Fold this sequence. Notes:
Layout: E1 5-13, H1 18-30, E2 35-40, E3 43-46, E4 57-66, H2 70-83, E5 98-104, E6 109-111, E7 114-116, H3 125-134, H4 146-151, E8 159-162
Antiparallel strand pairs: 1-4, 1-5, 2-4, 3-4, 3-8, 6-7
The structure holds adenosine-5'-triphosphate and 2-amino-6-hydroxymethyl-7,8-dihydro-3H-pteridin-4-one.
Adenosine-5'-triphosphate binds at residues 74, 88, 91-92, 98, 100-101, 113-116, 118, 120.
GO molecular function, one term: 2-amino-4-hydroxy-6-hydroxymethyldihydropteridine diphosphokinase activity
Organism: Shimazuella alba
Domain 7,8-dihydro-6-hydroxymethylpterin-pyrophosphokinase: 91-102
Amino acid sequence: xxxxxxxxxxxxxxxxxxxxxxxxxxxxxxxxxxxxxxxxxxxxxxxxxxxxxxxxxxxxxxxxxxxxxxxxxxxxxxxxxxxxxxxxxxxxxxxxxxxxxxxxxxxxxxxxxxxxxxxxxxxxxxxxxxxxxxxxxxxxxxxxxxxxxxxxxxxxxxxxxxxxxxxxx
Length: 169
Ligand SMILES: Nc1ncnc2c1ncn2[C@@H]1O[C@H](COP(=O)(O)OP(=O)(O)OP(=O)(O)O)[C@@H](O)[C@H]1O
Ligand SMILES: Nc1nc2c(c(=O)[nH]1)N=C(CO)CN2
C-alpha cells in the first residue's frame, strides 16, 4: 500500500479565461489517479511578479491527499498544464495554467527537475498568502512557520482576495 501524503499545489493563470481554467484544472487534478483535493483556498488576484509587463494573475492553493511519489505527482501536474493548452513563451511570463508543487508532506527534494519546498515559495505573496489560508499552523520542512513567513513578505506585492467556490466536481 502506498503512503498517503498531504501536499500543497499552487495554481496560477493570467491568459484566456483564468477562472474557468482554474476550475477545470482542479477538476482534472481531483479526477487524476492517486490525487484527491481536500481543500481549496480563496482565489486571489495578484500583480505579476518577475516579468511585470503582463496581465494580473489569478492564484489559489489546493491541499491534496496523494499516494503518488513526487516525480509522478509532477508528471500529473504537467499533464494538467498541457491539457489546458498551456502556452508559455518566456520564463515568469504569461500562461493559461501553471501548477507548482509547493510542499510534499514534510519532505525535502533537490532533484534536477523537482525542488521541494518550491524554491521561490517564501518570497511570493501569491503562493504564501493562500497557503496560509488553508494551512495556518504549518511549519515548513525547512523550519519556517507559515504565519511568520507571511509577515516577512515584502509589502510591494499587490494581492486581493476574490470570491470563488471550487465546484468540487
Ligand atoms: N516544486 C516544483 N513544482 C513544479 N515544477 C518544478 C518544481 N521544482 C522544479 N520544477 C521544474 O521547473 C520547471 C519549469 O517550471 P515552469 O515552467 O512552471 O516554471 P515557471 O512557472 O516559469 O517558474 P516558477 O517555477 O518560478 O513558477 C519544470 O519543468 C519542473 O521540472
Ligand atoms: N502574481 C503572479 N506572478 C507570477 C506567477 C503567478 O502565478 N502569479 N507565476 C509566475 C511563474 O513563474 C511568475 N509570476
